[in-house]
Amino acid sequence: MYRVTSATAADLFDITATRRIERAAAAALPAHTLMQRAGLAVARLAMAVAPHARTVWIACGPGNNGGDGFEAAAQLRQRGFMPVVTFAGDADRLPPDAKASLQRARDAQVIFAQEPPTDYELTIDALLGIGATRPPEGVMVEWLQEMDASGQPVLSVDVPSGLNADTGVLSRRISADARTPRVCLTFLTLKPGLFTANGRDAAGTVWFDDLGCDKHAEPPTARLAGRPKAPRRTHASHKGSYGDVAVIGGAPGMAGAALLAGSAALHAGAGRVFVGLLDPSAAPVDTAQPELMLRDGHTLDLSDMTAVCGCGGGTAIRAALPRVLTTAAALVLDADALNAIAADSALQMQLVSRAQRGQPTVITPHPLEAARLLGYAASDVQADRLAAARQLATRFGVVAVLKGSGTVIAADGDASPVINLTGNAKLATAGTGDVLAGMIGAALAAKQSPFEAACEAVWRHGHVADTWPADAAPLTAGTLARQAPV
Ligand SMILES: NC(=O)C1=CN([C@@H]2O[C@H](COP(=O)(O)OP(=O)(O)OC[C@H]3O[C@@H](n4cnc5c(N)ncnc54)[C@H](OP(=O)(O)O)[C@@H]3O)[C@@H](O)[C@H]2O)[C@@H](O)CC1
Ligand SMILES: Nc1ncnc2c1ncn2[C@@H]1O[C@H](COP(=O)(O)OP(=O)(O)O)[C@@H](O)[C@H]1O
Ligand SMILES: [K+]
């Protein structure tokens, strides 16, 4: 069993692949073995999460997820805890493994009750796992609400009930005020839905147990990339070795966004950073950051540069885009550049033809920008973030970075998409997206592959927020840019 952190590199498997893996694992073992191992693992983690607990409320559902709960109840009872099981199902209709575990719980003198106990120190959610076919209903809803409101730790078995393990869409709301600590122990595979959309909030800290099963050869649905290697600078390198970044943006009144991207590129190690502002009346120098070379955005020669285009671009970016799309050696497209492209099929064709010319492009939409590019609603994008990122990458021949909780990075081609595990809501402040675009620009300018550049910059960007001290002043985009690590 291990805890998943932002440093974890691992493959992720959707429900269909997990079912195949589960079937092969079950076939290789004596009957009921997998569920017994799962229940024991739940009991062990429960004791680690709440060693002081006496009463443990275990809510069990009508399928094998409930079976894991019965098995955990038996194990906890044998270790002197007081598990109280509430069962939302019909004993006669349980699948065979779960039926056997129900009997084991009864044999262990586990208490079965109609209602949750009045006092308990830990809840185990074994209502629904990967077999959920629709949102929880009836008494399950009441029990899940009670868990959310209890303030006691919740241990979700395999997946939090009501969470789609493929997409991370949660069929219920978890209040932002809920102080309930959450852990999830997932079996056999790590599932993508635990790490994106609502998955992070619903699952909390994710633990993984392979239940002692052999390795398998299923192709992954997606990956966690883990901590990137620290880049090394050779002694005999010079500023040309790290490339030029040109930020194109900063329409009247929005110079700040372009300067933030420029600052991030600079602090992320670009050799030289130009900022091509689209405001003809812009000041010729940023005295706070004199390293940035301010130029006219319409005339900068981009043929040997990595352009970062769109930050604070407003509607003025539209006129600059045909030249940027055709001439930039490498390109990051963000914000208003994406909105302009979404509204203009000629620009879309120019974007697609960059890939055909071998000019790499990374796009960094948030869900609404992604929705505009795909012609969907933002809710459709959020309904399946992996699919949306893959579609963007394929349709435009780019590396797509779909931002938000559990940022997804997808490339056009065979590589599995990556879900990034760094970052938190401290980044939910204006300008942090401009900073990310600048950081990706610096990585591209240093000649990293576009997919790697995007994955690593996204990881580092989030890592700054993850390591930002809890008692420090709020993280601002300007500070984030200056922290952008090489
Ligand atoms: N088999 C193994 O080897 C191992 C399996 N393992 C465990 O099994 C879990 C998967 O078990 P599972 O396939 O039985 O599905 P599960 O998630 O329990 O739900 C299905 C049941 O719920 C019902 N139901 C669905 N939605 C509902 C709703 N909204 N409201 C009410 N009811 C609803 C559905 O009914 P139906 O849709 O048929 O009407 C069916 O009865 C997996 O996550 C892991 O924990 C581990 O022990 C490892 C070894
Ligand atoms: N709750 C969150 N968890 C993780 N990352 C977040 C969260 N909120 C925002 N971010 C990150 O912050 C950045 C915000 O970018 P964006 O929405 O473009 O903002 P802006 O346009 O103001 O710069 C993205 O990298 C996004 O992934
Ligand atoms: K569950």
UniProtKB/TrEMBL annotation:
Record's catalysed reaction(s): (6R)-NADHX = (6S)-NADHX; (6R)-NADPHX = (6S)-NADPHX; (6S)-NADPHX + ADP = AMP + phosphate + NADPH + H(+); (6S)-NADHX + ADP = AMP + phosphate + NADH + H(+)
Chain coiled-coil ranges: none
Keyword Nucleotide-binding part of the UniProt annotation: yes
Region (Disordered): 219-238
Amino-acid positions noted as binding AMP in the UniProt annotation, renumbered to this chain: 403-407, 433
Domain YjeF N-terminal, first and last residues per copy: 18-219
Alphabetical list of PANTHER family matching this protein: ATP-DEPENDENT (S)-NAD(P)H-HYDRATE DEHYDRATASE, ATP-DEPENDENT (S)-NAD(P)H-HYDRATE DEHYDRATASE FAMILY MEMBER
Protein name: Bifunctional NAD(P)H-hydrate repair enzyme
Species name: Variovorax ginsengisoli
Top-level taxonomy: Bacteria, Pseudomonadati, Pseudomonadota, Betaproteobacteria, Burkholderiales
